[in-house]
From TrEMBL:
<dbReference type="GO" id="GO:0120147">
    <property type="term" value="F:formylglycine-generating oxidase activity"/>
</dbReference>
<feature type="signal peptide">
    <location>
        <begin position="1"/>
        <end position="24"/>
    </location>
</feature>
<dbReference type="InterPro" id="IPR042095">
    <property type="entry name" value="SUMF_sf"/>
</dbReference>
<dbReference type="InterPro" id="IPR005532">
    <property type="entry name" value="SUMF_dom"/>
</dbReference>
<dbReference type="Pfam" id="PF03781">
    <property type="entry name" value="FGE-sulfatase"/>
</dbReference>
<dbReference type="InterPro" id="IPR016187">
    <property type="entry name" value="CTDL_fold"/>
</dbReference>
<feature type="domain" description="Sulfatase-modifying factor enzyme-like">
    <location>
        <begin position="484"/>
        <end position="726"/>
    </location>
</feature>
<dbReference type="InterPro" id="IPR051043">
    <property type="entry name" value="Sulfatase_Mod_Factor_Kinase"/>
</dbReference>
<protein>
    <submittedName>
        <fullName>Sulphatase-modifying factor protein</fullName>
    </submittedName>
</protein>
<keyword id="KW-0732">Signal</keyword>
Length: 729
């Protein structure tokens, strides 16, 4: 989601934080107030206002005036915040300083969990990232949105319904730790419409993360996590790193205990400086820009600021993959940052260290008698020759870390200069040291020299969507006469028009699903389909009908967590025989259908049976009718669906009933290399309140829901049932 789910919302957030920070800065005389989590560079660069003209050539005096000003700002803001950096010294939290690469990972990612074997595949997931971009330091495991709200399970329940429950999740976290990867889970303050956990949010979060052995909390939509989260974790003896999604607000008191944040940044030609990193050099920012296909700006700004990157690709089931060129840049940037992590927390960090060439920007990181420079080329052209003026100091050696070679200063014009190449939109890193390379540095130089033999430009920068496949449905045995409880739908040419209502993704390629006649996944679909005649259940399958299936077959799923969760002692509650069966997975529904000699409907068959041929919006017509559907349940606990025959006014022109507003219904399954999902139709009676991020309803017949699939334990829902079809002879 995170709250960048819609462009307009993010623009509003940026404006809001800018206004708040501007007000906070009004008491100062600074000329460089932060804009979001970024301080603008010297005026001579016009970094935030490119319309004012091209950046100028800055003098050393320009840089000194700027550095003095933002240093004054830092000192004042620390006083206003009563700032203490003691949390950054806690041994159990120090790892956050070097958590440079962190993806947000959907639990539904097929590299992470194999539903066939029922096993978490952490090594497969990490091996893929190691191969493609050099691996990760931490991971945000995302188990809640966008499926949360399909029923009353809250954010903690959604973790508990992952395969193996809490114990299974704990073992999975151990697998990440075995590979040296720290683990975050999110907390959603907006989740106040589902099941009430019964304790304060911070206590529930701290306990769950202690139970599963996680290392940190990602605060979704938070502008700084309250200290109560840290206190709750400490009280349990399981300290956690706090990582809010957004920057902290002035006067930045929360910087003391929020030792990480995300960075939604803007990218003028001259890099801006992370305000939080400037206030506290030990603070870690992971730059996030998940929909942007060219990551050059993100990575250059991260390298210039000595911070990390959110390598997020599976965006709520929508693949926004990192292209090979950017993947290789991540590999090299991260390799240097990890090796030089001690430099990148230097309290003597100097952004905009002097360089010799226009468009080349450097940060200087002194550490004892050594110095590191992280350098970016913001120009679209290669550059070579003198880049840095350095002290002509005897015994000081210089190493070009990016290319893995030692440099010899060149004396000219009364100074000493280092010459080295930087490719277009590329990177550089220089280490000055009086010491001979130790084993760690020698290994870095050798590795980088091998990598640098292939420039970044030799890697493809072409972005590609992931094609999807729709699961095939085998024909059933045919029937020439009406099977009990089924309605015949005539053959015909049907204008199948439907739209995905995912909250995120705009109209990007890869959003929603890809039907067999389409060449890519997309949100909006229109196609004339010839539909052969078929039989369809007049009503969704009821509890009584499903009980007959169980009695006849003794069916019991291998993954039985949440299976028929509202039943007791092998049967449904009294009076529920005519209610639609729920808490059944796609696999459970298919098993029932096979036993009955039927199958699940294709989505267009379901829609044709509901809509007829006149493109009506609802089964009964074009105007919403409250009497045609159950009364919405807006509470925090499911009351249960209505009987399938309770609302005859909701019947379609073909005589099919209970299509909309009682329970969602399973139809087609889609998959790509990373994600499985099912199209669910009809919406349900349950409407959790208080947030726009809950699973959206799709009552209209030109809309469908897309439910991400992981495993039956998590896929089953208290508002999700099914009906079957049978082919006509």
């Amino acid at each position: 989601m995170h709250s960048n789910r819609a462009h307009a919302h993010q623009v509003f957030c940026n404006l809001l934080v800018g206004m708040l920070l501007a007000l906070a800065a009004a008491a100062q005389t600074t000329r460089y107030s932060p804009e979001g989590d970024q301080l603008p560079g010297p005026d001579c660069l016009n970094p935030v206002r490119p319309s004012a003209g091209q950046p100028k050539i800055c003098t050393r005096e320009d840089y000194k005036i700027w550095l003095d000003d933002i240093t004054h700002w830092r000192n004042e803001m620390r006083i206003r915040a009563g700032y203490s950096g003691r949390e950054y010294e806690r041994p159990e939290l120090k790892w956050a300083r070097s958590s440079f690469i962190q993806p947000q990972m959907m639990v539904e990612d097929r590299y992470f969990y194999d539903p066939e074997s029922g096993q978490y595949t952490v090594d497969k997931y990490l091996d893929d990232l190691e191969k493609r971009y050099g691996g990760i330091d931490s991971i945000l495991i995302w188990s809640v949105y966008p499926n949360v709200g399909i029923d009353d399970r809250n954010q903690y329940d959604m973790v508990g319904t992952m395969p193996g429950g809490v114990e299974g999740v704990r073992k999975m976290v151990v697998d990440f730790h075995r590979r040296g990867v720290r683990v975050f889970f999110p907390v959603m303050p907006w989740d106040q419409g589902t099941h009430d956990p019964g304790v304060p949010n911070w206590e529930a979060t701290a306990k769950l993360l202690a139970d599963v052995g996680a290392d940190g909390i990602n605060g979704d939509t938070f502008w700084g996590l309250p200290r109560a989260f840290q206190t709750a974790a400490d009280d349990l003896g399981h300290p956690l790193v706090l990582e809010p999604e957004h920057t902290l607000l002035a006067p930045f008191e929360g910087l003391t205990w929020n030792t990480m944040t995300w960075g939604y940044w803007q990218y003028p030609a001259a890099p801006m400086v992370s305000a939080l990193k400037w206030l506290e050099p030990r603070h870690m920012v992971n730059v996030c820009d998940r929909w942007k296909r060219d990551k050059t700006d993100n990575l250059q700004y991260a390298f210039f600021n000595g911070v990390g990157y959110e390598s997020w690709e599976n965006v709520f089931g929508i693949w926004s993959g990192i292209v090979p060129r950017d993947a290789e840049a991540i590999r090299r940037v991260a390799k240097i940052e990890r090796a030089m992590a001690d430099f990148l927390v230097s309290p003597e960090w100097q952004p905009y260290a002097a360089t010799e060439r226009y468009g080349i920007y450097a940060s200087r990181w002194p550490l004892e008698k050594k110095t590191l420079w992280t350098i970016v080329n913001r120009l679209p052209t290669d550059t070579d020759g003198p880049q840095l003026r350095v002290p002509a100091q005897s015994g000081l050696r210089y190493f070009d870390l990016w290319h893995g070679v030692e440099l010899t200063p060149q004396l000219a014009g009364g100074g000493a200069f280092l010459s080295f190449p930087i490719e277009a939109h590329g990177f550089g890193a220089i280490l000055a040291t009086p010491d001979a390379p130790d084993g760690k540095l020698q290994a870095l130089l050798e590795a980088m020299k091998a990598l640098a033999s292939s420039p970044l430009t030799s890697y493809s920068n072409e972005w590609k969507f992931l094609p999807q496949q729709m699961a095939k449905l085998a024909k059933t045995a045919t029937a020439s006469t009406a099977p009990p409880g089924m309605v015949k739908i005539p053959s015909g040419d049907f204008v199948f028009k439907v739209n995905g209502i995912e909250i995120e993704g705009f109209n990007e390629s890869g959003v929603d699903v890809q039907y067999p006649w389409e060449d890519s996944p997309r949100r909006h679909h229109l196609h004339t389909v010839h539909v052969d005649s078929f039989w369809i259940d007049k009503y969704p399958v009821t509890n009584a009908e499903f009980k007959k299936f169980l009695d006849a077959t003794h069916y019991h799923p291998k993954d039985d967590s949440n299976f028929l969760r509202d039943w007791r002692n092998g049967t449904y509650p009294p009076g529920w025989e005519n209610k639609p069966v729920t808490w059944v997975s796609l696999e459970d529904a298919r098993a029932y259908a096979a036993w009955a000699g039927k199958r699940l409907p294709h989505e267009w068959e379901w829609q044709y049976a509901a809509q007829g041929g006149d493109e009506r919006l609802y089964p009964w017509g074009n105007t919403w009718d409250d009497a045609a559907v159950p009364v919405p349940d807006k509470g925090r606990a499911l009351r249960g669906p209505d009987g399938v025959d309770t609302h005859p006014r909701g019947t379609s022109s073909f005589g099919v009933a209970d299509l909309v507003g009682n329970v969602w219904q399973w139809t087609d399954e889609f998959s790509d290399e990373h994600t499985r999902a099912a199209v669910v139709r009809g919406g349900s009676y349950y409407q959790p309140q208080g947030s726009v991020w809950y699973f959206p309803q799709a009552y209209r017949l030109d809309q469908h829901g897309k439910l991400l699939l992981m495993a039956p334990s998590k896929d089953r829902a208290g508002t999700l049932g099914f009906r079957c079809v049978k082919d006509v002879e």
